[in-house]
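[Discussion] Sanity-checking designs against the backbone

I'm trying to build intuition for which residues belong where. Below is a structure token string of 674 positions. I'd appreciate it if someone posts a full sequence so I can compare it with mine line by line.
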């Protein structure tokens, strides 16, 4: 893999003499106190400004500040006019526009496209403080405010919409967000490398859209640059791919926006190629035609080295919300204020998840010393600390320092997952470094308990029984959340998740460790309803598994097709991009699209709720499984209905039966809200 310039090796911009700000300014008055006449870069974000490394605007802002740039923040501006976007004046270099830590559409709407009325990233948890498609709206307002100031897009909303993509909320394929926002350049992924390089180049006079050699960026061009050789995506699954591609400057031509918006098979092929070109060690550039212009996407950035990760997480954060919010609580801050990030990335490759597309599949780790220093900082400086570290982890709890055994093999690999269909033999699955970190963390003076709240990848954990014992003995607080997602082979294969037998093995080790520790702990398995490739029979079998194991889910997750995920390509196209997508010879996938069927799948997950019994009974009869209707343990739902539930009139209700139903509903292990 090509070596990358260290993030902290650049010559500082002249404004470094101003030093670090207590908080990045959100007003002219704060700029005056700092002695600034202007900001070099203004970050516009859909989240409240919390100066903490769990929030993207804080990381990027503080990183640019340490490079010597004056950085201001415009957080959750009133987007009805351009007025709020002039609050700090015009930046000398660019506006950086992000929707925030979440895609604005995922943040605002449920999987049934219903409006959410709360927002964890807003003071008071109030909903409606950011517009739909925030990146586009904010970019338009920035352009209205200052016509000639360059606009740079970043964050997860931009990252997952960098090419033509299926948009669940409008049920159509949309253009790259770069075009719709009319921005100059888009930075995808976590983007520290790209934003630092871009800022320094622009400070020297370069134009943003000319920085097309920086890794991890997307720009619009009028034509393909000279000296580049095109390879069409249609041919990439051929067995002689390597021989045909040869050496030199190769760019992969994806099907055009016009093609993927009209041809669902072409959409699936584009999705497959995008994910195959995601390894920084071997990824090639991508180009996709949009009308008369070319979208040019450079290969992913080189992963951050441990010293760079340490440097980022030890920047001079205030570790608190901006003072302008006074004492108003911000739910996202309350949740993470005592947690510590240990790593980034995920090599799981779950088809419904967007972590890999955004953060990459190569794990980027902090050093043990850096993590311990942050715990000590939390202890000494975070208001309200009671001795409890709420989490040490990242996208997963137990991928810390896990990587391919051989760097050359890692750089050449194009597999979307290191753990599907089984754990790769080239993967070093040792949990020793994580066990050592846990032990050192709980020995920090003033720390009473260190919890692990990030999800545990149980197919990795079973490779280390010692880790499971350490976790259960010291770092579980009664319940541990894990995500088998399903029990049936069909949907699990489309999700790229291990078989339920791996969960059974983990549960055996978990229960054994809990017994040895003298603890009464429970596993909380999460499942997804209505995932592509899931039949009604699959959901029925999952419901029976839940009943046999005495699980009753309080809230359940229905599949939400997020932009750019492989499962979203399945949902939209009806084609499986996990396998070769050739004209007329692709594997079909049944997508659960109709509202009635999606609700049925959700009802199966909540088989214990009497409100769902009528629809489940109807489905069982239609499926020829009326044998599962009755009063016994082998039945899924009873034949009668409590008064005031389900169908109008309370079909078959009697007082005694209602009492029995209530016993049925309250028995078993409670599951916290997901």
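Best answer:
Here's mine. Compare freely.
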């Amino acid at each position: 893999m090509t070596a990358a310039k260290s993030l902290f090796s650049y010559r500082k911009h002249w404004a470094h003499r101003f030093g670090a700000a207590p908080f990045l300014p959100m007003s002219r008055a704060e700029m005056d106190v700092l002695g600034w006449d202007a900001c070099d870069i203004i970050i516009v974000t859909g989240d409240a400004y919390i100066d903490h490394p769990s929030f993207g605007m804080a990381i990027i802002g503080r990183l640019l500040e340490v490079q010597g740039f004056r950085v201001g923040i415009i957080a959750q501006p009133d987007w009805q006019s351009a007025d709020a976007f002039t609050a700090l004046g015009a930046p000398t270099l660019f506006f950086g526009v992000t929707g925030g830590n979440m895609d604005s559409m995922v943040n605002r709407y449920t999987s049934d496209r219903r409006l959410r009325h709360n927002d964890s990233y807003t003071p008071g948890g109030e909903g409606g403080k950011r517009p739909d498609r925030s990146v586009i709206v904010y970019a338009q307002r920035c352009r209205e405010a200052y016509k000639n100031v360059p606009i740079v897009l970043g964050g997860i909303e931009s990252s997952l919409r960098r090419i033509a993509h299926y948009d669940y909320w409008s049920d159509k394929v949309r253009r790259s967000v770069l075009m719709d926002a009319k921005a100059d350049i888009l930075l995808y992924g976590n983007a520290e490398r790209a934003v630092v390089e871009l800022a320094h180049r622009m400070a020297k006079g370069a134009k943003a859209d000319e920085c097309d050699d920086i890794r991890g960026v997307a720009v619009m061009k009028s034509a393909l640059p000279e000296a580049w050789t095109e390879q069409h995506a249609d041919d990439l699954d051929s067995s002689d791919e390597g021989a045909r591609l040869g050496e030199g400057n190769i760019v992969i031509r994806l099907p055009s926006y016009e093609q993927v918006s009209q041809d669902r098979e072409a959409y699936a092929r584009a999705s497959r190629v995008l994910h195959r070109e995601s390894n920084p060690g071997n990824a090639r550039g991508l180009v996709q035609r949009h009308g008369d212009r070319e979208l040019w996407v450079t290969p992913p950035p080189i992963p951050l080295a441990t010293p760079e990760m340490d440097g980022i997480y030890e920047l001079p954060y205030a570790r608190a919300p901006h003072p302008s919010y006074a004492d108003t609580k911000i739910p996202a801050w309350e949740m993470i204020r005592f947690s510590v990030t240990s790593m980034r990335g995920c090599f799981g490759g779950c088809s419904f998840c967007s972590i890999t597309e955004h953060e990459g599949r190569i794990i980027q780790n902090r050093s043990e010393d850096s993590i311990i220093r942050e715990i000590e900082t939390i202890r000494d400086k975070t208001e309200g600390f009671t001795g409890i570290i709420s989490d040490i982890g990242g996208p997963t709890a137990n991928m810390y320092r896990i990587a391919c055994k051989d760097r050359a093999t890692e750089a050449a690999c194009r597999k979307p997952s290191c753990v599907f269909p089984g754990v790769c033999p080239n993967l070093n699955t040792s949990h020793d470094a994580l066990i050592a970190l846990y032990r050192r963390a709980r020995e920090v003076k003033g720390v009473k308990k260190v919890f692990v709240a990030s999800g545990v990848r149980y197919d990795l954990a079973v490779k280390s029984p010692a880790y499971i014992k350490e976790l259960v003995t010291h770092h579980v607080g009664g319940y541990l959340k894990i995500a088998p997602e399903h029990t049936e082979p069909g949907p699990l294969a489309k999700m790229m998740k291990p078989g339920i037998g791996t969960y059974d093995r983990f549960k055996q080790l978990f229960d054994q460790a809990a017994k040895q520790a003298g603890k009464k702990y429970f596993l909380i398995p999460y499942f997804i309803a209505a995932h592509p490739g899931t039949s009604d029979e699959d959901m029925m079998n999952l419901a029976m598994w839940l009943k046999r194991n005495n699980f009753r889910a309080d809230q359940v997750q229905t599949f939400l097709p997020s932009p750019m995920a492989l499962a979203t390509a399945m949902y939209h196209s009806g084609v499986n991009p996990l396998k070769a997508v050739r004209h007329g010879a692709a594997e079909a996938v049944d997508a659960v699209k109709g509202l009635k069927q999606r609700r049925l799948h959700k009802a199966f997950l909540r088989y214990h709720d009497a409100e769902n019994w009528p629809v489940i009974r109807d489905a069982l009869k239609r499926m020829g499984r009326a044998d599962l209707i009755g009063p016994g343990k082998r039945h899924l739902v009873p034949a009668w209905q409590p008064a005031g539930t389900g169908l109008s009139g309370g079909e078959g209700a009697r007082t005694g039966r209602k009492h029995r139903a209530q016993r049925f509903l309250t028995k078993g292990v409670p599951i916290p809200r997901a």
